[in-house]
Amino acid sequence: MTDVGLIPQTRTINGSVQHGFKIFLGGGLGNKSFVGHQLEDFTPEEDLLYTSIAVIRIFDRLGDRKNMARNRMRYLVDQMGWEQFQNLVLKERAIVRATQSVVVTLDVENPHKPASQLRVSGFDTKSIPDGFSRWRKNNTYKQKQDGYYSVSITLEAGDITSNQLMTLADICREFSAEGSGRTGFIQDVVIRWVQESDLPRFYSRLLEVGLANPGSLTMAHPIGCSGTTSCNLALTNSHRLAKEIQRKFTELKLDEDDDLRDSTIKISGCPNSCGQHEIATIGFYGGGGRNGKEMYPVYQMSLGGRSDGETMLGVNVLRIPAKRVMPSILKIIETFKANKKQGDTLKSWIHNVATGHGDSSIKSVNDFKKILLPLTVAPSIDDDKDFYADYGSDSHYHTRTGKGECAA
Q1: Residues of the chain whose pLDDT is less than 70?
Q2: What is the pTM of this model?
Q3: Measured at the alpha carbon of residue 124, what is the angle toward residues 118 and 128, in degrees to the nearest 5?
Q4: Dihedral of CA 276/231/74/297: which sign?
């Protein structure tokens, strides 16, 4: 679901292992989304840059310069057709390979350091703080290297204070063998190469600075774009909604439910998909609804999106009022618990429903529509004034857009 997507792979030829990639082209999320196409069965690593240069050249020549809103590779591939675009890339790559010399040497350094080089003292296991077991289960995972873990620091929709950042820098230097942290789309900070024996002390340091919240690697940690907090294109405060969901789900300890662990919630403040809602187990994008003369914030809900080896865009279900989003998610979870079979997770169960292969009373998204429809009914403003205000706002909801901060 990106312009150029890469998945590393190997193949064996005559007993020799060859490294390379699956290359996907022409994907992208937004007001109109597309799943990328695989260029060929296997692309050797020495052809990676030749292929990338070829793709850039073709898009540079054929991209839509008149209508900049549609100047995306996904639109070009859709307009041209995949087979024609694929042939152009392969022919252009042959030209690039024949006319350009691209030599890349990757100097990969293993950050592993002997334990003696780490500036971490021992920790008294008798004084392990409360909450450590829950945090360890839902915020850490074992690396391939014996004795080392990666730790994901839970933030609320990506927010962190300057003081917390300063402390986190100290924590990286003290506990990580590579001495740095990483950020990514999950809106958290990941610190690798932490010794297992140092995890309790690591957790204690996070407690001191208010960063020891659980659930980073679970459904209880939704992703929300900036929304109306800063983006003029946004129609709803997706950023604040993500925070509210995280706080509620942590309070309900949904991060400890293994059936929900691999599911995701992603929220965008408009259809442009900065929150990547279309590849979420449960996705939402913002808009406006109307009850008579009064407006209120709503979200289009989709189900069954994924990008974990098999990319699938979520199936739209119905529009949910902003103040009913949390009850809707909890209703979906309740329905799953009542209908799941042995071995089902929420993610696998919703995937079956979204593809029309449900094997319970919920067979398709139409069955979900019937269940969730009562939550879409808008009360009068006299009966529920809060319903007509967005999260983080006490004023009456309205839709106003301007020049946005994203590339939409």
Answers
A1: 102-127, 399-408
A2: 0.84
A3: 105
A4: positive
